[in-house]
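Why show two proteins at once? Because comparison is the fastest way to build intuition. When a single record is shown, students tend to memorize it. When two are placed side by side, the eye starts asking what differs. So, the first record is below.
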Amino acid sequence: MPAAPTPPPEPDEASEKRLRITRELTIPLAEVLVRVSRSSGPGGQHANVTASRVEASFDVLASPSLSESQRRRVMTRVGQRVVAIAQDERSQTRNRELALKRLTERLARALAVPKSRRATRPTKASRERRLQAKRRDATRKRERRRPSEEA
């Protein structure tokens, strides 16, 4: 009797989920390395036995999700490895969420293109305010001087 065909393997849960960095860019969770370890600091026996500290790291050079221009921008701003650590909560799950959120924020900040400044001429009112401030400062400094012998 022939064996029944086996169904295709279920897709890995991590490969299905993605981190939304910007409106245009999402990164699969498979590209993010998540490591857990014991948290430092207070917490008593609980902290001594649970691995609740989470470190999420993203390798910029190895990521196929980034374009060359995005890769260059992130490399110049934060380097080839972006890391976010969370050990704020007792729960590993909550710390994992926090670490991924922080990683997303760091990548989004690194990818942000600064708005270019358009040169403008000062307005008449701003020029007048500047001159008034100069006159006020000159008067104040003049009043600080020693009185002259002639007066």
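Second record. Ask yourself what differs from the first in the token line.
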Amino acid sequence: MLGVLTSKQLSEWEVYDRLDPTGEWRDDFRLAYLSSLLTNLTISVYGKQGAKTTNPMDFMLEWDLEKREPKKQSREEIKAALKGISDFVNRKAKEKEKKSNLDLTNRPPRRFRQTNNPKL
């Protein structure tokens, strides 16, 4: 491409890109749209009934972060978030422990089980 464009044409394209930089924003929007689509599909399959769906603007990058004031969390909000994570991990550990506590000593080996008897 550089072999075809003259120096003047290249300069004009650089100025045009500074005036109307649509390429990067469109790329970001395409990725945000795809992320939103995949998230909404996952919510529709695995989410709870009435779960909130997303839109592409939820996934758009914000390049002007110095203009925004960062949100500060209170101690109660941090404690609630950590407690939620802890409860989830503990619940999963208890479920795993219940599964591992099954008594399999009285069961015959798999090769001796009858296929028509589901209790074995």
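One difference worth noting in the second protein: The chain has a mean pLDDT of 81.
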